[in-house]
């Protein structure tokens, strides 16, 4: 995910390396999407692995007493909430939707 952040900086040599800013943004989109999927699957797979112990499995998906796990759970839920906001709320805004052409 940090590589995706570097791609979004619009550094000139990165643009030359990939052959244009549009290609850099395409790679940024795909790397960000894969990073998002991997970040969401990580706690779920850990919870499945710990399933014989229900207390340990819940620790990966719900806040508890350990600060490190709480920060991870908070980060995952924040990322998920921002994704839901981006897809379902910002999608309807006229500023972000694709422009329509008038046939005159």
Care to describe what's here?
Helix 3 crosses helix 5. The model has no long low-confidence stretch (mean pLDDT 82). The protein has one domain (2-92). By secondary structure, it is mainly α. The protein has helices at residues 2-7, 12-18, 21-49, 54-59, 67-89. It has 5 helices and no strands. Helices cover 68% and strands 0% of the residues. The chain is elongated, with a radius of gyration of 19 Å.
Find the structural class using helix and strand composition: mainly alpha
N→C terminal distance: 45 Å
Mean pLDDT: 82
Number of helices: 5
Approximately how much helix is present in the residues? 55-70%
Biggest sheet character: none
Low-confidence stretches: none
Elements, N to C (H/E): HHHHH
Radius of gyration: 19 Å
In oligomeric terms, what are we looking at? single chain
- Give the tally of structural domains: 1
Strand-residue proportion: under 5%
Which of globular, elongated, flat, extended, rod-shaped describes the shape?
Answer: elongated
The count of DSSP E runs of length 2 or more, i.e. the number of strands, is 0
């Amino acid at each position: 995910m940090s590589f995706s952040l570097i791609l979004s900086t619009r550094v000139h040599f990165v643009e030359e390396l990939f052959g244009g800013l549009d290609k850099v943004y395409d790679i940024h989109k795909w790397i960000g999407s894969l990073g998002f999927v991997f970040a969401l699957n990580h706690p779920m797979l850990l919870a499945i692995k710990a399933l014989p112990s229900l207390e340990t499995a819940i620790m990966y998906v719900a806040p508890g007493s350990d600060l490190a796990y709480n920060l991870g759970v908070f980060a995952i839920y924040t990322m998920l909430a921002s994704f839901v906001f981006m897809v379902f709320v910002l999608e309807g805004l006229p500023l972000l939707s694709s422009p329509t052409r008038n046939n005159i």
